[in-house]
Amino acid sequence: MFMKTRWLIIDRQLKRNISKKLLKINRKKQKTEHSSSLGNQVGHSKKPNIQNKKSIPSYSPFTTNRKSKRKLSSIFKKVISSRKKRKMEKIDKVDEVVEPIDRISELPEPIIHHILSLLHCPRDVARITALSKKWRSIWASFFFFNFDQKRFKTSGGDHTEKFITFVDNSLASKLDPMIRIHKFKISLSQVNPKLKLYTNKWVYSAIKRNVKELEIHVEEKKKKHYMLPNFILTSSTLTSLRLSGCKYDNEIVINLHNLKELSIKNSHVDKNVIPNFIRGCPLVEDLRLVHCTGIGHLEISTPVKLTRVELHECHGLVLINLEVPSLTSFLYIGKKSWFCEINIGDCENLKCLTLKDSNLTDEEFQDMITKFPNLEKIALRECDYLERITILSMKLKELSVIRCKNVEEANIDAPNLSVLEYFGERMPFSSMSVGSLCEAKLNLQNKKDNFVPLKELLIFLMKFKRKGDWKMVVSSNKNVTIHEDLKNVPYLTSHDLKLELIKSPVKVKGYIGNLLRMSRPKTLSLVSSSSSEFLKFVKEKIMSREKNPKCCTYYSKKCWLHFIKDVKMVVFEGDETSQELQQTTFQFTWKS
C-alpha cells in the first residue's frame, strides 16, 4: 500500500511539472504569433472581413489546451507504462534472488539414507529429520537398528533376560509395518544357547525385510562363537556383511549375488571358507580379514570386481597370491615373527599400497613398486629390513615411512608428492626435492646418546625457507610452538622432536583445533609479527571464548573449549635482529 501511494504522488508531481512546461511553451507561441498578426494588420480597417474569417487561424486558449491535454495524456501513458515495466522487471529480479530454495529437500533419497546411517545417536537422527517434511517421511521408511548387550550390564545378576526383552519389544513395535530395513547391527558380550536362538530369530526377521547392511559382533570368551545360520549367506538384498566372532561351516552354500563389502574379524576361518565367499559373491569390491586364523593361503585369481583387500594380523597366513587387475588398494599388516610371501604383481592398477612387514627387503620392495606405475599413496610401517628406499614416480602424492628403524637413505623423485610423513631416528630425506609438498610431518626420536640428525634436518628445512608461506609446528613435552617465518627458526636441539610443516592457512587453523582437542598442551606459542592475521585468529579463538560455551550443547563429545579452566597470555617482544617478530604464549590450565 505504501509503495502504491508513493508512486501516485510521484506521478502527480510529474504531471504538474509537464503541464506547467507545456503551458509556458504555448503562451510564448501565442505571444509571438499574436504580435506577428498585429504587424500584418497595420493600415487595414478594424472591421474584419467575414469571407476570410475561416482562413484566419484561431489562437484561442481552448484549442491549445485540448492539444496540450492530448500530448500530456500520451506522455503520461508512455511514462506510466515504462515505469510499470521497470518496476515489474525489478520485482522479477528480486524474486529470482530472494526466493528461498530448499536444497536439502531436493537431495536424492539414497543420499539422505546415507546421511542418516552415519548418525549413531537416535537424538541426532530426530533433530536432523526436523529439517524438512521430506526428511521426516523418509525417516519413517528408514530404519537402522543397533542393539548392544553391553548397555545392559549390571553390577549383579544376569542381564541377558533384560536384553532379550528389550530387543523383542523394540522389534515387535517397529518391524510389522516395515517393508525394508537399511541396517541391522547386534553386538553380543556373551553367547548361550538361549541367546543364540533369539539372535537367529532377530536376524531372520531382518533378512525377511530385505535388510541391506548386516553386522554381527560377538566377543570371544572361552572360544564360544556364534554359528552363522545358512539363511544369512543366501540373502539377495545384502550389500554389506560384517562379522566378528562367528563360526562358519565348510560345506555351507554361499549365494550373496549383491554383496559388495565383506569383513570377517576375530574368527577361525578354514582354507575353503574364503574361496567359497569369493565364488558366491561375484560383485564383492571390498574384502577385509582382521585377526583371523586358519587361512593359510589366500589365492584369488577368478574374475572378480575386487578394488580393496585388507589383511590385518592374520596368524598362519603364509602366502598371498592375487591376480586381480581391478584392485586399487592393498594393505598387509603382519607381526615381526611372521613370514608371509606376497605376490601382487599382476595388480597393475594399484593406487594405494600399505605394508607392515618386518621381513621386507630392499630388493623385494623395489621389485614390487616397479610393477605399479599408477601408485598414488605408499605407507611403510616397521619394515625393519629396509635400508634404502628409491621411488621414481610421476603419480605419487603421499608417502609415509613409520618406524622403519634401519632406513638410512631415501631417494625420492616424485614431482607431484604433496604429503610426506616420517617417524624415526634418522633423517634420510635431506636430499629430496620439496617443490610440490603441501604438508610434511617429521617425528625424530632419540633412543641413543649419539643423536645427530639435526644437520640433515636443517638442510631439509632450508629448502622450505626459499618457498615461503610455510608454517612450522614444533612439539616437545606438551609445549607447542608455531613459527610463521621459517627464516628465523632457532636451532633445534630437542631429544624428542615433532615437526609439522604446513602450507595451507586453512589446514593450520584446523590443526590448532585438533591439537587442543587431542593433546591439551601446557603452552601454545606463536612466533610471528604483531600484525599477523593468524595471531589475531588464535587470540580471538582462545581469549574471547565464553565461560559456558554453547557450541556443543547437543553433542555428547565436547570440543576443547569446554575443558579449559584458565588461560594466561604472555607476549615477549622481539629485538631488532628478529625483524619485529614477537612470541605470544598461551599458558593453559585444563579441567581434570
From TrEMBL:
Residues 35-65 have a biased composition (Polar residues). Residues 104-138 form the F-box domain. Residues 25-67 are annotated as: Disordered. Residues 179-336, 342-450 form the At1g61320/AtMIF1 LRR domain. Pfam families: F-box-like, LRR_At1g61320_AtMIF1. Gene3D superfamilies: 1.20.1280.50, Ribonuclease Inhibitor (3.80.10.10). This is F-box domain-containing protein. It comes from Lactuca virosa.
